[in-house]
Amino acid sequence: MILYKGISHPSLCDVMGHMTTRHYVAMFDDASYHLIYAIFGWSGEQAKIENTGWADVRHVIEYLDEVAEGDLLEITGTLVRVGTKSITALYTMHNIGKGTTAATLESTSVFFDLTARSAIPITDKMRVAATTHLDAGAS
Predict the structure, then answer these.
(1) Contacts of 71 (CB under 8 A, 6+ apart)
(2) More confident residue, 137 or 112
(3) Model confidence, pTM
């Protein structure tokens, strides 16, 4: 599913003219919020009301093709694993104009109690929702 669309503005690029690592991570992070919303209906409101959220605990990024100033980008994502307290998602950044895959991110996030500051179990309701989005062939 498409989770993010953006552009590699000159201000996101380094002195060599390609997008810097920090901005890849920011775009993937924005996409992750959309994926969590699509699966669980979770938004920042739950952080305020229920004191629950998500904490990334692992990222594996592969940079596959250079992203230059002005490149149009799109990020798709899918859920590949549901654990007891965590989920793992795979995100792919597409360079639309070049028709290439710019980067991928495999991300593991834990469901998090914002008061206790620790991981908590994914609820049965959440597990059912996650299972309907699970892409068994992606991992």
Answers:
(1) 7, 8, 19, 95, 96, 97, 98, 102
(2) 112
(3) 0.93
